């Protein structure tokens, strides 16, 4: 054996051991009864046990609700997180909405598969999505994700995009006050106490808000930290100064000594800088981000209002504004978007973070202690039920067991808040660190006799923390214990905070391999174009497109599936066409089997058998060779993977042999075809036809690289986005663009790189005419690329260009 191979195997064995070694205290299966796809939970979530049944029950549910919103969008971009289970009119690129992106990242950071959060952070930092549609704390959340993963390379590579997002708000900055202004609507709050009293009660007037300004303070602070780690001291200093100014603005203008609270302040017709007449829940957000001065005890008085029955204290969570206010309305029963009374998970999540920060970073007060903290968290858990089962929608009545904003096939499992972050980060007190320490500061009452968190992935290590007051529950000695990769590394005889020093994070090494060069070739985020899907039969209650929309939702309602329900055929097929000329090497198909027989809601269940066929070069369907199914027998509402001998094909189809005996039909919520990506002859090459296209057409071409090219890039908004353009090093690269231009005039395209840099590319006429490509016909651009996945968008400008591929000269 040569030395290099030996070292590789030795290293792989070590890493394999480290990540597989773990404790096994929790009976995982018992926690996952009734959940679809239980293996996903075992692969991804920390398992928790606490004495409070509701808190624990909702904990597992909220991972399942979050899972429903993890959406694989586009190869090279990967995962995003949605807010609604279906597309809504005001969602933006790939149906995203930035309003709760911070919450999404804070929830995602607890998943063991770090790709979910990192793809999504990269998306906000580089895709040019609508980052200023609503207020946001994306940079802050991105940094909090780094604290969990320890992946320094990744967070440092995001600096430019995060700074760019931050500066996207410059036109809403008031230098005289050092604060940002926006409408309550743009702060995700329609019909609030600060909007009801304006001419436009839906949007409200512009104002300086404690919520948004605290978020911008938090964004500025982490950008300065990231810049410091990047040895970019001038950016670090710039953002330290900006953060300090915003913080001063909040403390000087938005705090009222007499009314002991932070308030909204109108921007217009308010020469005396008067504050709103009503306390709103957003006035508690500043603690979460460390805005109040810890040396000044006056600020802690704000918490009295959280526990005041005339303030925010109600049966089902804090009210969005204080109940004594003339603008308060706690009687809504079904209308959406009233944030002047309803209990609102978006805000409750923030407030619990803030309450934990008060306890951890500022100290107990006359009203804030671990018992009152638990009361608020418990109430939040108790709110998240419907018909006796854990559930979350948009908003809840403060007084009645009623989800008020709860539209059918719309706001189920609404992803607009945190909860698992409140349990893991606040209650159990896992406080992720930038250096090689693991710190836990539990905020649990002395009456609790136990808790455990197991399978926590932290800086590349498996961590278990358990507390067992008398040692009887986990068959151990009394006290709190920390296990690192299965080994006991810290113990105290009583409940206390713990700090453990860790070996160097594996994140640093493993992140170099974190680029997962497999992508899902079946995904179609648009519901039209390629990959094109078709079926021999589709139920009127289903859609072929929902089976490739990247969403995995096994529910009867909300519906997201293709089924053959009511088909007269014994065998129905479902096909995926990668596009004209787009032949790919594939070796597996993953079917997310839908069953409503399992839940007594319908007649769709596991098929009797599944066969995979591929289109041969001669145009015939042939069976893929050596098909094996995992598991061997289909499990309803779970994954069925069919592996086969690698084969080159443009089209794949699945034959579903339905269960005729039971008279059941076949269905799936999603089908994925994962394969190496990109599939190109030379490293650094990206095919235009593999990109994300807007108003452009994939065309087969014999002279085209990869078998096809993209043409008809004619409409004003027509564009070709090269996704997932990976480089290891940040610098300017030569990029060759292979194209054809069949008219005798120069054509141009506008090129945007990572939503930061733009340039105009010129394409002289080509001698061979349209649709003809060769190795000598290209233009060379100089393009600055960032470490990791880059986004390069070519947009139609003057005249026409057909694009074949780009080659990054590495
Ligand atoms: Ca789907
Ligand atoms: Ca091509």
TrEMBL record:
Q: Where is the CBM6 domain?
A: 684-809
Keyword Signal (UniProt): yes
User: Lineage of this protein's species?
Assistant: Eukaryota, Metazoa, Ecdysozoa, Arthropoda, Hexapoda
Alphabetical keyword list: Signal
Q: Does the keyword Transcription apply?
A: no
Query: What is a single Pfam family found in this protein's UniProt entry?
Result: F5_F8_type_C_2
Protein name in UniProt: CBM6 domain-containing protein
| Signal peptide from the UniProt entry | 1-20
Report the PROSITE patterns cross-referenced here. CBM6
